[in-house]
Structure formats: structure tokens, C-alpha cells
Amino acid sequence: MPELSRATVTGPVSGGARGWAFGTPVIDLARHGYREDEFFLEGHASRYAPVPGTELGWDGRWQVQPIEIAPFKTRMVVLRPVDPAAFNGTVLMAWNNVTAGYDNFGGGDSPVLFDNGGAFVAVSAQRVGVHGFPENPMGLIGWDPERYGSLSIPSDDYSFDIFTQAAQAILGGGADGVVDPVGGLEVRRIIAQGASQSAGRLSTYLNAVQPLAGTIDGFMLTLYFGSGSSLEVGEGFVSLPAPGTEEARQRPPLVGSHLLRDDLDVPIMVVNSESETESCYVVRQPDTERFRYWEAAGTSHVSRQAMASVGPRYQRDFGFVPPDQPGINEVPMNPVVDAALHHMLAWVERGEAPPSQPRIEFAGEPPEISRDEHGIARGGIRLPQVEVPIAHNSAKPLTPDFISRLGGSSVPFPPEKLRALYETRANYLERFEQAARATESAGAILPSDADALIAEAAGSPQPEF
Description:
Layout: E1 8-10, E2 34-50, E3 64-81, E4 90-95, H1 111-116, E5 119-123, H2 127-131, H3 140-143, H4 145-148, H5 159-171, E6 189-195, H6 197-213, E7 218-222, E8 227-229, E9 254-257, E10 268-273, H7 277-280, E11 291-296, H8 304-309, H9 311-318, H10 334-350, E12 362-363, E13 368-369, H11 384-387, E14 391-394, H12 402-407, E15 409-412, H13 415-422, H14 425-441, H15 447-459
Parallel strand pairs: 4-5, 4-6, 6-7, 7-10, 10-11
Antiparallel strand pairs: 1-2, 2-3, 3-5, 8-9, 12-13, 14-15
């Protein structure tokens, strides 16, 4: 059995044909007292397989062992406070999402992180993020071969140990002659975060690798479909096109639906939109001292606002802005994710568990999401746009294409329906504010986000009664 190793860190990285690190947040870090650095991580990573006689079973209590090592070199991006005294000791470490064929990470621009003095590290753990797809590669090497040409990941099989070695580098403290990626900050806690495809990989890490590595102090899975990725995918890679289409490429097999193991002494939080609710229904676990499960009604995997928010980054890195997607869901998840991160920080730092939230309701056989007279899901976290609706927003797509399946739908109510519901715009705005404050009181959104939602509703010319 090969021994686990630790990677070498080099950097900060600079230069290249473009002169900046790919995929980083487009914000004024200096205004928040933060700085950005990129580092390379190089060494030998292990891949894992189930211990003979065991399997990756339903209960999530998986037993694995390292079986082979291979060389790798990848990168990580670090956002941290300039003033060490402002650092709270916690690092949010993101598993970069590569579904679209390139590195995509979120969370580094969250005001919750800046307000709490945390640091953020984005890890390029998967092969596609570095090398891209075989056709029209958009990975780091293709984007800037001068800066990233030396990077290499042999297979996603090694991604789990690469993630562990990134965490070890963050915790290492920078001994004599060793590059410290966090610039001397005293890191006391690491929260691992993954969204969508990355949440699936992080769930496998949680179930299989965390018991061996023990480097993570909390897990936050967002937009999680209830199934981890396989430990062994070989040459498989993630693809954006939907299965069954001519454009579909080979996909790594999933393990299948399973629980998240419940015998770890670290907090675990799942934060989902309505899009993931049906696939997670059979694996929804009760809240415990170490587990929280949130899901927001009337939301979707991707919202129109979320797609618009990536425009500045796309313009900088790719030279274009993604086209608008009218008709997709218009209830963004970011207020719920911000609140979840706020609670997650308090959980790992002070032992203050997040409040439990109601779950989306199901009915019938087979069970389906229960919907009200407007077609909006019942139960769950209810943002004011859902509780006091002026449109039908849900995860139900308008068309069968891939973007619609992720983006759900938004269909405005006609004026006559709005008048029947609210009579006047003033009544609507009053009820909207009451709903926002109720969700804030429940701990599912932060006061700052409640204020922003109320101001947005008041300042919008819509709806017209």
C-alpha cells in the first residue's frame, strides 16, 4: 500500500501571456482589506479503492485504501486578509467545478467571508480544469499555456488526495524554506465547500477519504444531487451536454444514491434548491448535532441572476458575456447560501449549530413535490419572492434542453391575477417585507440580504397592477 505524501508549494505565480489568474472573482479585494495570490501544488497523489470485501454502500460509511500513486501539478488560488490580525482562523476551501470544461469556483466574493475575516482557497483538483475536454479544450493550459503549461493531472482518480494535500499545505504553517500559501496566517479550521458536480465529489471525499485524512473541519455541500462520484473513473471526465444527446461525452459513473456518513465528528451542511429536491428525497437525513439539511422552495439549480452575475468574469477571461436566458428561474439562491455560510462559520468556530429549516413537501405515490394553486412548491425555506409571488418560479423547465433543466422557469402573473392577490402595489410591498423579515427571523437569510430584497422590490417598476 503506497504511503500518503505531501505536495510542494511554489509561488506566488505571476506573469503568463495574459498576466492574471484564471477564474478569480472580479471584485476590489483591497477595499475589503484582502489580497489574491496563486500557487502551484506539485507532488505525488494516491488514488483510492474500496478495501477488499467492502463496497461503497448506502450508509456512506465507506472503507477505502490508497492503491497507486502518480505525479501531479496543479494550482490553487488564495484570498486572504492583508492584516493577520483580521484573520479569524478559518479557511473556506472550494473544490472547483469543471462541468463546463474549465475551472469555475464561487464563494470567494461572499461578503460573509469578508465580514468574518475568513480566508478562501480554490483548488483545481480535477483533470478537466487543467487540461480541458479533448475537443475545444478550455482548461488552464489552453487558456494560458505560458502560465499553466507545466500543470498536469493524470486522472480524476487522484483528485481526492490532491484536495487533501492542498489542505495540508494550508495547514502547514510554512516551515523554514517552505512556501506558505496563506502568508503566515494561523489556520485553525478548514471548511470544504463544493457546488453541483463538485458537491458530488466532495460527498465521496467525506464518506471515503475524510476518515483517513482528517484534514477538514466542516463540509458544506450546495446544489447536491444526493449521489457521489466514483472513486475510479480512469479516463472519464465531466461533460456539460445532457446524457443521450449527440453532444454528450463520456461521463464518470456515479456511485448511486447514498447517505452522508453520520459517524464523523465534524459539522456537515447540505444547502439545496428545488432542482435537487426530488433526487435527494430518498436520502434526506434528519438534522442532528452534526448535520443540517436546507432546501429552498421555488428556486432552481441556476437562476437568471446567477447567470448574469458571471458576466464581468466571462468578459475578463473569455472576452464575451453569456447571453441572457429569459424565462428561467428568477429567485436566486445566493441569500440562502450566504446565510448558510454565516451559520457554518459559527458552527465550526463556536459550536453554534444552524437553525433547522422546514423541508419541501411531497405527496402521492410515487412521491412528488406538493404544489400550491400557483404551481409553487409547498414547504421549504420560503424567500419573499416565493411566499409573496408575482410569478410562477420553480425548478420545472419550460423546455427539455440542458440549460432549462438547470434553470427551471419563471412565468409572470398577469395583472388581473396580481390585483386579485394583492389589490394594490402598496399591499404587495407590505406583504413582501413581512415575508422577508419572517425568513430573516428563521435564520434562512441574513438581515443585509433581507434589506436588499426589500429595497429591490420597492425600487422595481414591476409588477404592474
